[in-house]
Design brief:
globular; 2 domains; single chain; ten-stranded mixed beta sheet; 10 strands; D-Maltodextrin-Binding Protein, domain 2; 326 residues
Length: 326
């Protein structure tokens, strides 16, 4: 009886050893066929272009094709859901933004996946900070003065944003919560019409990703009062951050690489190292800068923390402002 039990135990141990060796071999052999990178927005946008730049680098580094596949819809949720529901074998990855990785969790009543439970964080890539810019006729030279002006006036200042639930919208609601500013968010269908009405004076200002406003700020058609990042934006070096002005406001659209939950750690580590090498290289920095992104190298754990803290931060704003996208 004891001999039979021992035999069964030895057989089980041998089987587990073979399985472990097989998994290790599969990871060491990765990738041995093309890898899909799902971009959850339409072709031609910044998320898609970043994905394609990284796909070229990873293809050259690993000697296998990394192919970008666009799956747009539902604020990025459709594409990221496809990543979350894929096999955790390293052959389906995703590059997504802060919306589907953090903010959408509060904006949509029904989410097909949980970013924190159903995804494996791989690497941060970069961020596009917001800029708050005003019509030149508005009597404020910086964000602190704009907040003060909003409190002193008889009516709220009108600040355009690219759409309901966008980071430009959330940032102004956050500013209202933390500073008591009297500002009314006015949603538009995209950056361009929001910017046009700010230039024309229909609204007092606009809150949008800095890349969409830079040219008109440089042409003095809009006055930038703050960049909402930790550091100043390279293309607008004379525009101070909100924090520099004593106003607590950080908001950006950040991009990151993720995979499905359970992605083997050796694959995660390898991809993280390669992505960091690229975004830290002169070529990578130049390519990201051409798309308006500031590089954000870091570890998978740092991306995981970013996803958690940003989700919690914007959840409070969404609930306070009663914002919903479905």
């Amino acid at each position: 009886m004891k001999f039979a039990s021992l035999a069964r135990a030895l057989t089980l141990a041998a089987g587990l050893t073979l399985l472990t060796q097989g998994a290790a071999h599969a990871q060491a052999d990765w990738p041995n066929r093309p890898v899909r990178i799902i971009a959850p927005f339409a072709a031609g946008g910044s998320s898609d272009l970043v994905a394609r730049q990284l796909a070229l680098h990873l293809s050259a580094r690993y000697g296998q094709l990394f192919i970008v596949e666009n799956r747009a819809g539902a604020g990025g949720n459709i594409g990221v859901d496809a990543v979350a529901k894929s096999a955790p074998d390293g052959y389906t990855l995703g590059i997504a933004t802060s919306g589907p990785l953090a903010n959408n969790k509060s904006l949509y009543k029904s989410m097909p996946y949980d970013p924190e439970k159903d995804l494996t964080p791989i690497a941060l890539v970069g961020e596009i900070p917001l800029v708050i810019a005003i019509n030149p006729d508005v009597k404020a030279n910086n964000l602190a003065e704009l907040v003060a002006l909003s409190k002193a006036g008889s009516s709220a200042l009108l600040v355009a944003n690219p759409g309901n639930g966008t980071i430009g919208h959330l940032a102004i609601e956050y500013l209202r919560m933390t500073s008591g500013a009297r500002m009314q968010s006015v949603p538009y269908r995209g950056d361009t019409p929001a910017m046009a009405d700010a230039i024309g004076g229909t609204v007092n200002g606009v809150s949008a990703p800095v890349t969409s406003l830079t040219a008109n700020i440089q042409a003095n058609k809009l006055r930038a009062v703050a960049v909402t990042a930790k550091t100043r934006f390279p293309a607008l070096p004379n525009v101070p951050t909100a924090n520099e002005q004593g106003v607590n406001l950080e908001a950006s659209v950040w991009s990151a690489f993720v995979g499905p939950a359970g992605l083997p750690r050796p694959i995660v580590t390898s991809l993280n190292q390669e992505i960091n090498k690229y975004i830290d290289s002169p070529e990578g920095k130049a390519k990201l800068a051409s798309l308006g992104l500031v590089p954000l190298p870091g570890t998978p754990d740092q991306l995981s923390e970013q996803m958690r803290t940003e989700a919690a931060k914007w959840k409070r704003v969404v609930e306070s402002a009663k914002i919903s996208l479905d």
